Amino acid sequence: MGPWARTCYQSTGVIANGGDTRRAPPLVEVTSMGSNTWRMKVTCEKGPRTLDRLVARIEQAGLLLLHVDISVHEPLLNLHSVASLQTDEEHSTTFDPSSLRESLLQIINDELHS
Question: According to the lineage, what is the superkingdom (predicted)?
Answer without folding.
Answer: Eukaryota
